[in-house]
Every structure is written in C-alpha cells, then in structure tokens.
Amino acid sequence: MAARSPASTVPESSKHHAYSRKQKSLGLLCSNFLSLYNRDGITSIGLDDAASRLGVERRRIYDIVNVLESVGVLARKAKNQYSWKGFEAIPKALQELKADGWKDNCNSFDGNEYSKVSDDEDDDTNGSQNDKSNPGLNPKSSASSKTEHRREKSLALLTQNFVKLFVCTNACLISLDEASKLLLGDAHNLSVMRTKVRRLYDIANVLSSMNLIEKTHTVDTRKPAFRWLGYGESTENCGSAHNSLTTESRKRAFGTDVTNINFKRSKVDSSIGGTLNSNFNKQKQVKYESFVHEVDRSNVEEDPKDGSKSYQFGPFSPVTVARVGASEHSNPRRFHDWESLASAYQPQYQNQALKDLFSHYMEAWKSWYSKVAGKKPIKIS
DNA sequence: CCCTCCCGCCACCCT
DNA sequence: AGGGTGGCGGGAGGG
C-alpha cells in the first residue's frame, strides 16, 4: 500500500496536532461535503474528487453518499459518479419513503425476517435513461438472494428504515435503543446488535449534520435519543423548533476549513504545543430539552402562519442555497395522501415491538389528524 | 466504566 | 482479473 498520502496538502502549520475525534467525525465530514457541493453549477460528483478534496479516504465518502442518497440528495449515476439533487429533493424522497413504509408493511408475506424495502426513490421528473435493473419483473429474483442479503444490511436500507420510523409513525422522538430494537429485529444477538448500533450512530451523524434530526435524550430517562426535525414545511411540528435559538446554535462550522485531513488516530503523538489552530469552532450540540415532548401532538393548534416554510436545510450560508426551498410548498396535500394511504394499507409490522410502537403513535396521530383536518379520525384496524 | 463511532481490513459486487 | 463498494467489528477517544 505505498505510503500514506503526503501531507503536502495541508495548508497551514504542517505539524500534526492532537488527534481529535470530533474533527474526524462523519457528521463534520458530511457538512463539509455538503458545503462543497451544495452550490450552483454542481450537477455531478465524482467520489474520487470528493475524497481528495475533503482529504479523506474513499471509504468514508461511501458512508456519506449512501445516506445522502437514501434521502434523495444524491442519486447514483454511474460507477464513481453521483448526481446532485439537492435538498429540494428531500421532501419528495421522504414522501416516498412514507408511502413505501406503509406499503411494505402490508405485503410482508409469510413470516420472513425483514420486509424488503423497495429500492429507492430514484429519479424524478427528469427522465434520464437510468437503466438499473428492471424494477418490476426480474427473472430469478430469488436467485439474487445473495445480493439481496447484502442489500438487506446496507447502510442505505438502514437509513431508510430509520427515517421511516419517524415519517411513517409521526414520532418525534425515538430513543437509540428503541430504534435499534425496531430496526434490527429483536436483539437476538448481542454482538450483532452492537454492530448495528454503530451503524445507527453513523447514520444519525450524517442526518443530523443535515439537520434532519437532532441528537438529544429522552426526557425521563437520560437515554440517548433522536428527534426528528424534518424538512420544514408541514412536518408535523415535531420540533418545529426551527427557530431562533435552535437555528444558530446548531450551526456547524463549515465551509471554512474543509477537511478532515491528516492526524490519524494513533498513539504516536509527539507532544503538542498548545491548542491547535482554531478553525474548528466548538459548537456544542444543541440541547434544548425544553423542546422534548413526546409524540403527543394533541396540543397542536394547527398554527397556520407559522414561519416554518422558510426553513432551510443545513447550516449553510443562504447564498449557496439560492433556489432551495423555492420549489416546494406542497403543504396541505399530504393530508389526503395520508388518508387514503391509511385506509388502503393496513400496516402490519413483523415484530410486536414495532406494532406496539406503531399503534401507539397511530393513536396520537389519529386524534391529531382529526383535529387538524377537522374530520373524524379514520379508522385503522 | 460505558457510550460513541473512527478506521481500515477484506468480502463482495461489478465491470 | 481488477478495481470499485461497503459490511463489519476492533478498539481508541470522550464523558
């Protein structure tokens, strides 16, 4: 493997400083990735390019790219090539995940392990060729069980399922272990569980760098949890906490120093002078527990003029997000979608835990829905 | 000590 | 065969 890449790329002081985990986090890397590509003119992204510009190994780029693709921000174009869809694509992707979530909890025929989650929410209006395998009929579908097995445990799938948890259930807050139990089947094996939890952390880190979720902890217990922040508009006010305080405090410092270059984790640490450069502002993770309110959205008063529509993704400087947000304001329509979906599909979760959780949230949702929509709750089950 | 989660080996897919 | 992908889990940093 030859030598490590020369440190020639390091801009300032070449000395290696103390190893800091935070500076190498997936979340930060993702932020950098986003600020690097979320600008006009960007259409396609080369993984090699990204890796070198961000100063990380390819492997890390895969992690990011996989979750970004899961929420629609990116789409795979070809080997080593992704196309940038932007944050505008998130709402649609989430919508699809939502519909998807209901659907595949319906056709989970036989007692199979995990419901297969349909591929992805792929492209949109733009009808590019985009071959990929034919979605519908495919010859020996079962023969590819090998591949499918792999896919089954992919970061991408896990991400989608994780998101579905919020989106399909209207849950605002889900604790880490709740999520892991639901997503990883019942904790059969401890080590398997551990591995999966690691993945959950990975996912959560990138999702939170996009501000789709936020890390917190449950009110009662101090257990770690994730709060859904959603994509702004009509997100059922989970933490419609996109306001003053949250907005800025959550900002990550990025754009300034692009990189997670150098400083590998290692015991070798020739003394470090004082503190290292301070490009990295230490933004503390926000923790407004005051917002922590459980699912219960019964106190929603259907605020009509909320300023949430002006929400912008990520802590990016407004200039770079130019047209973002201008394209979507499909506010009310999702209600009917929900109604029809709800009555059309009877959600059937495999494991009891998921079922319980679901019905619990469903109750809350129904009352909320009836209030907001001004009609009697639809009957489910 | 336990929780987070970075790192990179190496099994798997594609060409 | 060769290179791109990405599961996986050891083990180190952080609280």
TrEMBL record:
Keywords, ordered alphabetically: Cell cycle, DNA-binding, Nucleus, Repressor, Transcription, Transcription regulation
Domain of life: Eukaryota
Region (Disordered): 113-149
Main localization, broad class: nucleus
Domain E2F/DP family winged-helix DNA-binding: 21-86, 150-230
A Pfam short name: WHD_E2F_TDP
Compartments it resides in: Nucleus
GO MF entries: DNA-binding transcription factor activity, RNA polymerase II-specific; RNA polymerase II cis-regulatory region sequence-specific DNA binding
Signal peptide: none
Protein name (record): E2F transcription factor-like E2FE
Annotated source species: Morus notabilis
